[in-house]
Amino acid sequence: MTDPVLELRGVEKTYNPGKAIEVSVLKGADLTIERGEIVALIAPSGAGKSTLLHVAGLLDQATTGEVCLNGQSLSAASDNKRTRARRNQIGFIYQSHHLLPEFSALENVVLPQLANGASEKAAKQRAEDLLTQVGIGERMHHRPAELSGGQQQRVAFCRAMANAPQLLLADEPTGSLDPVTADQMFDTLLGITRDTGMAALIATHNHELAAKMDRVVKLENGLLIELEKQTV
């Protein structure tokens, strides 16, 4: 039996610990995501959804508890080790796509591969393949300002997939899109995620989209609670 791709064990996150005003966001969150599993994360505004994703994605450190990737605890790892794990094993998609405006769609997908040691030829080929797969191959040489919101999110998805991550984390990836574009984008995201066998944790306010995933967890009072899908 293989280790889960992502495992959170008793994760707590407190801001200003030990000071007069402490803000406790996560209070012992537990979560396990297996290879090939797509989990929806729902939460009321201000519940700490982004904090949870940042801790799970090694962008922020938990106050206490463990964050494990493929069975390896990285909670107390050095910054360099966390950076390598994040670069090699995790892909991120955010509601605000954060594409580099001075580069084309193709270049935005090529750059993270070059940073990870890929050759320029291999990086360009993979970027072309990914952009074509999500239906914007003919727009790959356009800059973000020349693309629609949905097209920009597709580029952001390809960038997250560029280094073939084992874990995909997405924070409201369709939240800024119109309903039709959001459905198309989400179906593309789900299709590629399932085809590659990645694990994925996708935060969304859209309960219809959440119901398409394998499991649904709710962040409430700093804890993760698994929901029956029919109650979502």
From TrEMBL:
Keyword annotations of the record: ATP-binding, Cell inner membrane, Cell membrane, Membrane, Nucleotide-binding, Transport
Transmembrane region(s): none
Assigned GO CC terms: membrane protein complex; plasma membrane
A single GO BP: protein localization to outer membrane
Pfam families tied to this protein: ABC_tran
GO molecular function: ATP binding; ATP hydrolysis activity; transmembrane transporter activity
InterPro entries for the chain: AAA+_ATPase (IPR003593), ABC_transporter-like_ATP-bd (IPR003439), ABC_transporter-like_CS (IPR017871), ABC_transpr_LolD-like (IPR015854), MacB-like_ATP-bd (IPR017911), P-loop_NTPase (IPR027417)
Domain ABC transporter residue range list: 6-232
Gene3D superfamilies: P-loop containing nucleotide triphosphate hydrolases (3.40.50.300)
Family: Belongs to the ABC transporter superfamily. Macrolide exporter (TC 3.A.1.122) family.
Protein name: ABC transporter ATP-binding protein
Organism: Halocynthiibacter styelae
